[in-house]
Amino acid sequence: MEKRKFYRFLLFWVVWEMGISFPMQAQQVDTTQIYELQQVDVSAEKRPSVVRSLTPVQIVEGEEIARLGYQSLADVVRRFAGVAVKDYGGIGGLKTVSIRSLGANHTAVVYDGIVVSNCQAGQIDIGRFSLDNVARVSLAVGQESHIFQSARMFASAGVLNVQSEIPDFRENRLYGLKAQIKGGSFGLINPAMRYFARLSPRTKIVLDGDFMRADGTYPFRHKNGNFMIHGKRYNSDILSWHSEINLYTVLKDSSHWNTKAYYFDSKRGLPGNIILYNPYAAERLWDKNFFIQSGYEKHFDRKWALKTALKYNYSWNKYRDINPAYPDKGVLEDRHRQQEYYVSATALFRPVENWAFSLATDGAVNTLRTTVDTLDPVRYSALAAFSARYQYRFLTVTAVILHTWMKDKGKAGNSLADHYKCTPSVGLSLRPWDTQNLYVRFLYKHTFRLPTFNDLYYLRMGNTNLRPEFAREYNVGITWSGAPFQFTDFITFTADVYYNRVDDKIVARPTNYVWKMMNMGKVDITGVDLNFTGDISLAARIRLSLSANYTWQKAVDVTNPDKENYKDQIPYTPQHTGNGAFALEMPWVSFSYTCIAVGERYSLPQNIEQNLIPGYVEHGLSVSREFEWKNCALRLQAECVNFTDKQYAVIKDYPMPGRSWRFTGRIRF
């Protein structure tokens, strides 16, 4: 009972903080006369330091995204070291991201400062995020280095952070407009528009919208056993549209208040796996997602700062499949509806120059209603993270202790046991020599992920006795940045060696002729990540940008020494992956080249020939030119993806497209 009272008090405190954060300034008495100076727009956010970061961080800016011709957020993430993106093929195929083989459930996807959640499946489909309004995409292993963040961001083994572009009003203009259209192979057409305006000297509004349509039909060649299949990929079409409104306000006390309303709607085909002599596929998926979120940040003085957030999320989807084997007229149709109510408050305290402390508290209520026979569960969760950071000359140390409480309730009064857990993390960065921009870093983090609603309750597969899945991360790295040669603007190099251990891994196993979710897995993960970036000035207004990374990873199943797959590489985890890119920027034209290489891997736990998926190398080219006239800028771009027409599959029997083309026209004024 005492614990319940404590958590009730904790949630009350979070809500109280949210309530008092806005009017707090009105309670202060100040007799000083204030003169308001002419406002200056500062729309750029501070870029995280890849070299000084205590945790491995990789960053791609919006300009680089456009220059290299990335088509989706999944394309960007695929080129990060140590990351695996599961792609089921086609333009509308589902795409999930896993960091260092820990699983997609351990990755937090953050959109403009607030975590995107999915309690039903625990995995976020990053294919639905548009890149047209993105200013930066970053990936942090463990957590981001700063301690002024929500408890949810501390709770994950890795953070994928997507930040929208904040408008820049040049020459004190009151509005701006950007219109864009993309077209290409497989019936792709994708118009988009962004309008931004200054509503007042302190308030900006941004309206974004885009529409995408593609039939997704593409030819493929695929080896199935001893047979080579030549066919077309059907039922891979998509029709989607997305819109959002962003409101950015700077209050008179210099605090920031940002609000986002987001809506996404899609219907698409799920092409299914390739079956010999049977191209038929009838699975369809409808998705609708709406959320509204608001964040407030105030720095009272050099010592105190407060950050709060509120979010409501509504997600609905429908799945339909047609097959004579289904009893109800050969049609299977499931509908699911999720809702989330989320609140967060984080306080930052810097008592002296070298020390900083933060306390982050999050509370959430998640519900699931479905036509599938489940308990219609409701999940209550509360997280509290206490963090400390010490920084002095050559040394930076952070420490975090996170406490998590979760309780589920089902219909008819069914209730599950509460989950309580404390998990720590420690990060350290050391600069041995003041004259060299060289850093050594160390990270230890202990995290866990709770079973999802599907893990616990889905039909007969669910198991209400599941324990959380635990992960421990160890990382030692070295980073360096400088300009060793006269012709280089900068060169950055990072190298990290890591070891991860996953215990009580949640897997589906057959029992008594049915599959059941169980805690039966243990995985050891050892790896090396190498990253290189550099800029070279070849001549006036001619610049060459280079980037490359490589990952070696051994992720083996150590669950049971008596099993045939003991110490075999876990499914869909190649030992070797790498990618590279270069972009040549010139006044008359810009040219870029990208490639990604993935080694062979296995589709099932046992590493035998029948389960082997061949490796592949995919190449891409992009050519662009920008024209400027007065206040207008026109950008034309042509891209060729997989120009060698390599036939490959990310998921076994789900062939990816071969060579494809895309053309983009964008005007901004």
β-sheet strand percentage: over 45%
* Topology, number of strands: 35
Which regions are unreliable across 5 or more consecutive residues at pLDDT < 50?
Answer: 1-45
**Fraction of residues in H or I helices:** under 10%
Rg over CA atoms, rounded to whole Å, is 25 Å
Shape: globular
Task: Report the sheet with the most strands, covering strand number, pairing sense and barrel closure.
Answer: 22 strands, antiparallel, barrel
| Number of contiguous helices | 5
Q: What structural class do helix, strand and pairing data support?
A: mainly beta
Please report the distance between the alpha carbons of the first and last residues: 62 Å
Question: How would you state the average pLDDT, rounded?
Answer: 85
Can you offer a commentary on this structure?
- The chain is mainly beta and 669 residues long.
- It is built from five helices and 35 strands.
- The chain has a 22-stranded antiparallel β-barrel. A five-stranded mixed sheet has the order 1-6-7-4-5. A two-stranded antiparallel ribbon has the order 2-3.
- It starts with a helix and ends with a strand.
- The relative contact order is 0.13.
Question: TL;DR?
Answer:
By secondary structure, the chain is mainly beta. It has helices at residues 2-21, 62-68, 73-78, 151-154, 453-457, and strands at 57-61, 83-87, 95-99, 107-111, 114-116, 134-141, 158-164, 175-184, 188-200, 203-214, 218-224, 227-233, 238-250, 256-270, 283-299, 304-322, 331-349, 355-370, 378-392, 395-409, 419-430, 438-449, 469-482, 488-511, 514-539, 542-557, 576-585, 590-598, 601-602, 612-613, 616-629, 632-641, 649-651, 654-655, 660-668.
